[in-house]
Amino acid sequence: MPDVRETHLAPKHHAAVERWRDAFLPDFDFLMDKWPEHFPKQAPYKLCAYREQGLCGEVEVGDAKGQPKAKRACDLAPEQAHNLFGAIRAQASTEFGSIQQHRLTLARAQSEEEQIWVLRMMAEELRHGYQMLHLLTDDDWSIVTDESADDLVENALSMQTGSHILGAFNIDFDSFVDNIVFCALIDRVGKYQLAMQKVSAYQPMAESMPPMLREEAFHLATGVVPMRRWASAAGRGEVFVTMDTLQKAINKWLPRGLEMFGDERGGGTNVRLGLKPMKNAEAQALYVDEIRKVIDDLNVRFLRARFPDLGRNDAEDRRRRIADDGARIEGVGPEDLLRMPHADFFRRRGVPAFRMVGVDGETYDDFDAYSAHLRRQLPDAYLAGRDFRDFFTTLSEVASGALSPTDASRRMPSLRRVAGSCPCSRSVRWVVDAPSAPMPASTANAATA
User: Fold this and answer.
1) CA torsion angle for 252, 253, 255, 256 (degrees, to 10)?
2) In this prediction, what percent of the chain has a pLDDT beyond 70?
3) What is the rounded distance in angstroms from the CA atom of residue 241 to the CA atom of residue 44?
4) Residue 161's pLDDT band (cuts 50, 70, 90)
């Protein structure tokens, strides 16, 4: 068993996270009641920070490879501290942002098990956000910011959907299909980021990653297992979640997942600084290969449900002939199976940003034709939402020549920072100072004199 040290935020910051949990995860007590029933072999949930001990104490990549890892922020070079501080804040934003998204459609789950699994994932994301806040407040980051610990916690907890740092966490969910596909695709990006940060030259960051990775494995299962069930059910002809529904959800979320790795031309600085072992394009390519395998597996399950006599190997061969070679076999053609969207499709950041590229990699010169293509490839409910409207409006300006792709990327998403559930709640802080002890009567009288 790994040696894991348990730590906590300062009491007022811990209380702030609990207040945030009560506001955005109101089913937490229900989850705790159901935990022994659904996860009997899992340790009880704790809201705390974990640090795994005994990890490599030397920088593992970059210019300082072989030197001792930094144990405090003041031991980092200025550029290291700046990049790492930004990464920790972004990570905290994603964890809390994910919970805000999932809560919108949680009640629409088809089964209690699926709902409980997503609830557990949300509770663990809360712990991951707590972990990042602990990294921010347990050290002195004055070399890169003049914000107090109170301000760092307050800012992280005050973000709403629409104001988070990464675009994928500013998109509203439209159905429970989003809950599941998000776990399968977007949480998988999280797995890559956590795995890369496990080698961080900042020892507290590296020690935080293994416990988060173990929990992240369940988050991926929360997405993949229901998708497998749905693909099999679709193969049997059930109508609840069709392959077309899954395809459109994949088309919606995969481009955002690809963008979470950062610009394909970047990442070299983090490698040089010893914060990650791979550049953005390298990690993104591994992610694409992994998603392709997930999609192939779903197609095999669909075919085995459609044709129960098919063995696994025969189903894989049939999948390849249909999906890769374009064959039609016993009434099933390529259009009936899931496909991997092209990496340039529906992108708003990175090298392919705002290029009119179709789901299969085809290119468009005519804006209206591309608009019609997007309408066919994305979920109807998503098309009616703010995120697609903003993208569509910006794309039209790029297509007309009024806006460059670079400037268009800078515009997305439109950040709207608010402090609570509405702009008027600016006076309500998550971080509340503990009441001070009453003054002696003589002092109080002197103070009012």
Assistant:
1) 130
2) 93
3) 33
4) confident
By CB atoms closer than 10 A (0-12, 13-18, 19+), residue 249 is: buried
Q: How far apart are CA 379 and CA 374, in angstroms?
A: 9
What H or E segment, with its residue span, contains residue 355? Answer: none
Report d(CA 188, CA 356) in Å as an integer: 26
Q: How many angstroms separate the CA atoms of 191 and 187, rounded?
A: 6
Residue of 159, 180, 285, 176 whose CA lies nearest to 228: 180
Whole-number pLDDT of residue 169: 78
Q: What's the mean pLDDT when you consider all of the chain?
A: 91
Residues 18-34, mean pLDDT to the nearest whole number = 96
- For residue 49, give the 3-state DSSP assignment: strand
DSSP 433: P
Half-sphere exposure of 87 (CA within 13 A, CB side): 22
Judge whether 86 and 151 are in contact, CB under 8 Å.
Answer: no
Q: Angle at which helices 11-24 and 112-137 pack, to 10 degrees?
A: 150
Amino acid at 225: V
**Extended strands (E) in 208-322:** none
Name the residue with tokens 């789950």: 109
Length of the chain: 449
Tokens of 149: 């610990």
**Which H/E stretch holds residue 50?**
strand 49-52
